[in-house]
Amino acid sequence: MEDKNNIYFFYKHTKSMQETVEPLKQLATSQGLNVVDDVQKANIIVSVGGNNAFLQATRKTNFRSDCLYVGVSTDREGFYPDFTINEIDKMFEAFENQNIEVKRLSTLEVTIDDEKPFYCLNECSIRSNVIKTFVLEVFIDDMHFETFRGDGMIVSTPTGSTAYNKSVRGAVVDPRLPSLQVSEIASLNNNTYRTLGTSFLLSGDRTLRLKVVQDGNDFPIIGADNEALSIRHAEDIKIRLSDKQVKVLKLKDNTFWHKVQRNFL
Ligand code: NAD
User: Fold this and answer.
1) Where are the domains of the chain?
2) What is the mean pLDDT of residues 228-240?
3) Contact 233, 212 (CB under 8 A)
4) Is 162 in the pocket of ligand 1 (CB under 6 A)?
5) 107-243 is a CATH 2.60.120.920 domain
6) Which pLDDT score is estimated for 77?
7) pLDDT at 36
8) Atom 6, ligand 1: which residue's CA is nearest?
């Protein structure tokens, strides 16, 4: 068996999910794929669940660039999963025929206080952990851009633009546009405090820097996709597009904009 055929199934280990995934494993074996239990040995990682499972699969496997990720949805279609469990044959056919493409999805690299960076596929969110507003000095590269006072900020990738970012009226961004979008959560705007008041899009070669003003409210909640980092002191948060890209198997006639249309219109 060639190494490139090593397939790993990522799913929540509940009894019902195990019952759902077992036939998939058997099908994979019958198709000549080698099902592995050690994710380190995999070169195809299949998430079974929905967007949530796909986000977890990429995070828990450290956004591997030497692997092909595939999303399988257990109910309705997701933004990341292109395949549904009821039409699983399509996934196995896709491994063999030409009706697929491999998309490279952007991730964010987030560095807090010069510690080891972490990565996000949807977004990084920074929110106050108390009722009081908190203050962020916002820098674009080295330029001081604005002083934010409010609940927090969301910095999203293009594929994350349809998630949390959209709920705060951020724009939906074509994933072909390497960029990061900065969206406010409830900014205070009056004669004393002023922010841009709209979302803005930064080119992929820029760095956003957020300095948390140390006024006793300097333990923000930092969210990386669907996980919250443990609450801790943060002073300097640097966010840029990462060199790490997630390779994902997609059906050819199922673009991001088809999904936007089907999900929102
Ligand atoms: P969840 O259970 O809180 O569900 C959030 C919803 O967002 C689900 O329906 C999920 O399928 C959907 N979703 C996730 N990624 C998406 C994407 N790229 N485009 C469109 N929809 C998407 O948590 P989850 O399923 O683990 O998803 C985590 C995401 O939820 C976070 O990354 C964040 O974007 C989003 N979120 C949204 C809000 C909000 O809209 N107010 C608040 C917190 C988190």
Assistant:
1) 6-98, 107-243
2) 89
3) no
4) yes
5) no
6) 79
7) 97
8) 163
**What pLDDT digit, counting tens, does each position of 49-91 carry?**
999 999 999 999 999 999 999 999 998 878 999 999 988 888 8
pLDDT band at 196 (very low <50, low <70, confident <90, very high): very high
Q: Which two tokens stand for residue 92?
A: 């196995």
The atom of ligand 1 lying closest to the CA of 122 is: 32
Spacing, Cα 190 to ligand 1 middle (Å): 31
Name the residue type at position 222: I
Residue 159 has pLDDT above 70, yes or no: yes
156 and 187 in contact (C-beta within 8 Å)? no
CATH superfamily of 6-98: Probable inorganic polyphosphate/atp-NAD kinase; domain 1 (3.40.50.10330)
Question: From ligand 1's centre to the CA of 27, what distance in Å?
Answer: 30
| Beta carbons of 142 and 211 less than 8 angstroms apart | no
Q: Whose CA is nearest to atom 24 of ligand 1?
A: 52
> Would you state the structure tokens that stand for residue 96, as one six-digit string?
């063999």
> Is 51 marked active-site?
yes
In Å, how far are 103, 187, 229 from 256, measured between CA atoms?
11, 30, 29
CA–centroid distance, 115 to ligand 1, in Å, is: 27
Return the percentage of the chain with pLDDT > 90, whole number.
80
**Among 56, 59, 164, which is best to mutate for testing ligand 1, by the most ligand atoms less than 8 A from CB?**
164
